[in-house]
Amino acid sequence: MTDIYRGTCFCGAVEIEAEGDPMEMGYCHCASCRAYTGAPFGAYMLWRAGEVRVVRGEAYLGGYNKTGVSDRQFCTKCGGHVMSRHPGMGLTDVRAGVMQGVAFRPAVHLNYAEAVLPVRDGLPKLKDFPAEAGGSGEVVPE
User: Which residue of 43, 111, 127, 137 could cross-link 30, Cys pair, CB 3.0 to 4.6 Å?
Assistant: First the structure.
């Protein structure tokens, strides 16, 4: 049986569910993620797009797409971040704090060349994105 994980925005008006385990978990240090989260880096969990669904409150779901790559979605009632859809990659990024019951086990740091806060955790630090996602795949030192 496949696990179903559920999560909500900050106020609970928007509820999403994801089927199965995330494909990848990690941190992103790009300027867009920093500006959107208001933090030195963002924590993400990636699922295939078809595995994440809005199950309640879709009318409250707003979006913003600054770069043409990521459709960041948030609750218009409370402003809470919900997810970012990446249609060109067929992926949905759910903020690590949104989903309940998923043990966050990060495996990589993305866009570490843009980092404003050094992190020394022994995980791979990619300059940008993996080669299979259109990046250089270059690993940079901690």
Answer: 111
> Is pLDDT of 25 > 90?
yes
Q: Which token pair is 13? A: 């008006």
- Is residue 120 classed as helix, strand or coil in its secondary structure? coil
| Secondary structure of residue 48 in the 3-state scheme | strand
* The pLDDT of residue 117 is above 90: yes
Pairing type for strands 42-48 and 24-28 reads antiparallel
Domains of the chain are: 4-117 (2.170.150.70)
Comparing 14-18, 67-71, 91-95, 115-119, the range with the smallest average pLDDT is 67-71
Q: How far apart are CA 58 and CA 48, in angstroms?
A: 19
